[in-house]
Automatic annotation (TrEMBL):
PANTHER family given in the database record: AMP NUCLEOSIDASE, URIDINE PHOSPHORYLASE
Function: Catalyzes the hydrolysis of the N-glycosidic bond of AMP to form adenine and ribose 5-phosphate. Involved in regulation of AMP concentrations.
Molecular function (Gene Ontology), one example: AMP nucleosidase activity
The Nucleoside phosphorylase domain, residue ranges: 280-453
Source organism: Asticcacaulis taihuensis
Highest taxon above the source species: Bacteria
Transmembrane listed as a keyword: no
The entry's keywords: Hydrolase
Protein name stated in the entry: AMP nucleosidase
């Protein structure tokens, strides 16, 4: 009779609770920020240069989180084996690809602390992972600590500060981990997260610049649109929610860097007089505890904008982003105001071909597709054949040429071969970015014109269309978010994981 092999988990040191790990990360980060701010203040006041020995000792460095998983030990040959390494783990995140040490620099524990603690709790519970906190070798660039420091920078140039304090070095910031480029540091550690401290801080600063809101107000569910009138409807909905005593939402963070609560007098006037026009992609965050609220970002028009904003939103590790915008209908059977639920994309955007070749398929996320359909049923009150008359599923073309109609004869065959039913300038880019950054994605568009059939978006027609369609479309998006919340961890699809994935979501 064949002797059954026994496998055991290697002996590990006593575990440190995830909450204690986060506390240590916060302490090191806060001390580094305080030191950098104090030295900046001293330099601005007396031109006292920072101490080089103290910098070399890590005075301004991000904290580093390292996690070790020793794998499964075979009692007969004492070799680490990979079989049955995930006996009880069936989720898409907080899992190891192989035994080893995984590490990353960490920024803003005040923003990411709950996220880090969630991942650590699962890795410690299911793998017996060992965690340590230390100083990283990455210094915090001084531009990222200026907010709230009360520093007067008028007397000094940025070049002068960069001579004496750590500055942003673009060569150290990138998406190599997300793009599957093999990256093992000098200590032989695998990456722990998709975005390290430097990359995250870069995007946190850009989000504030582009959206006019603090990055930390970004919620876990993001609606992206390409028309400002969607913003008006969303803001009106948010203000109504805040008035309800049983509302799950606590505040509305508005473009222009101000927040409205249920106690804010005349919020409509405050929003109308705000400086949202100064910002390229205005955002409004309907906030709820645990970042379970909804963010709406008006990304404007074009794939470049779509890529730009999602490059930065991705570091916030949202649960999903959904495109709720307008498109041109390509089929004679469609009517103005019909919906298009994208289940495939033809990428003619050309903004990501070098990092995600166009032959890489962008699969639909089943949970998102189901949620969109269920939400449409609930909001429209239609189902079955009645809903099919208004909601069509198919391929969406995303182009980088706003005047694609002028070269339609060159594109017609390709559009036909793809079985495309709609065309826009953002959706495929947003889906490809979601795929690339492991953020569940989906697209529900509304037909605003049919250029191939002589139904152009003229001013009078546009106003009638907007009034009729926008409110319902936004309600479907919001209802979709509610359904996705109920999916919980199942929303994060394993089909978005690469072969050698970092442990953290």
């Amino acid at each position: 009779m064949k002797k059954e092999k026994k496998t055991t988990t290697p002996q590990t040191s006593p575990q440190i609770a995830a909450s204690e790990i986060v506390r240590q990360l916060r302490q090191i980060y806060d001390e580094a920020v305080a030191a950098l701010q104090a030295d900046l203040q001293a330099y601005l006041a007396t031109r006292q240069k920072p101490s080089r020995p103290l910098r070399d000792a890590g005075r301004y460095c991000y904290p580093k989180l390292a996690i070790v998983w020793k794998g499964v030990l075979d009692d007969e040959d004492e070799a680490l084996v990979m079989a049955n390494r995930h006996p009880e783990v069936n989720r898409a995140y907080a899992r190891f690809s192989r035994p080893g040490t995984y590490s990353s620099s960490i920024t803003r524990p005040d923003i990411f602390g709950d996220y880090i603690e969630e991942q650590l709790d699962l890795l410690i519970r299911d793998y017996g992972a060992e965690c340590t906190v230390s100083l990283s070798d990455q210094e915090i660039p001084y531009p990222y600590v200026l907010d709230g420091a009360g520093l007067d920078l008028n007397s000094v140039s940025a070049i002068d500060l960069s001579r004496h304090f750590p500055a942003t070095e673009l060569a150290l910031i990138g998406n190599e981990v997300a793009d599957g480029i093999s990256f093992i540091d000098a200590e032989g550690h695998h990456p722990l997260v998709l975005f390290d401290g430097l990359r995250s801080d870069f995007s946190i600063a850009r989000l504030k610049h582009y959206t006019g809101t603090p990055a930390e107000h970004t919620q876990g569910y993001i609606l992206l649109t390409n028309y400002n009138r969607y913003v008006d409807v969303f803001v009106a909905y948010a203000l109504e929610q805040l008035k309800k005593p049983d509302s799950p939402y606590t505040a509305l963070s508005c473009c222009g860097n101000f927040t409205i609560t249920r106690d804010t007098p005349d919020p409509e006037a405050l929003i109308a007089s705000s400086s949202w026009r100064k910002h390229q992609m205005p955002a409004y965050h309907l906030m709820a505890p645990g970042r379970q609220g909804i963010s709406l970002v008006n990304i404007g028009v074009g794939p470049s904008n779509a890529k730009n904003i999602t490059d930065h939103l991705a570091v916030m590790r949202p649960h999903a982003w959904l495109m709720i915008g307008h498109c041109g209908g390509l089929r004679a059977s469609q009517s103005i105001g019909d919906y298009v639920l994208a289940h495939a994309y033809l990428r003619d955007d050309h903004v990501m071909d070098d990092v995600l070749p166009i032959e890489i398929p962008i699969p639909p996320i089943a949970e998102v597709q189901q949620a969109f359909h269920q939400a449409a049923v609930r909001v429209t009150g239609q189902d079955g054949e009645d809903l099919k008359k208004r909601l069509r599923t198919g391929t969406v073309v995303t182009t980088d040429d706003r005047n694609w109609e002028l070269k339609y004869s060159l594109s017609a065959r390709r559009f036909s071969q793809s079985r495309a039913i709609a065309i826009d300038m953002e959706s495929a880019t947003l889906a490809a970015q979601g795929y690339r950054f492991r953020v569940p994605y989906g697209t529900l568009l509304c037909v605003s014109d049919k250029p191939l059939h002589g139904e152009l978006k003229l001013p009078g027609q546009a106003n009638h269309f907007y009034e009729r369609a926008i409110a319902e479309h936004i309600r479907i998006g919001i209802e979709t978010v509610g359904i996705l919340r109920d999916f919980g961890p199942k929303l994060h699809s394993r089909k978005l994981r690469a072969f050698d994935e970092p442990p953290f979501r």
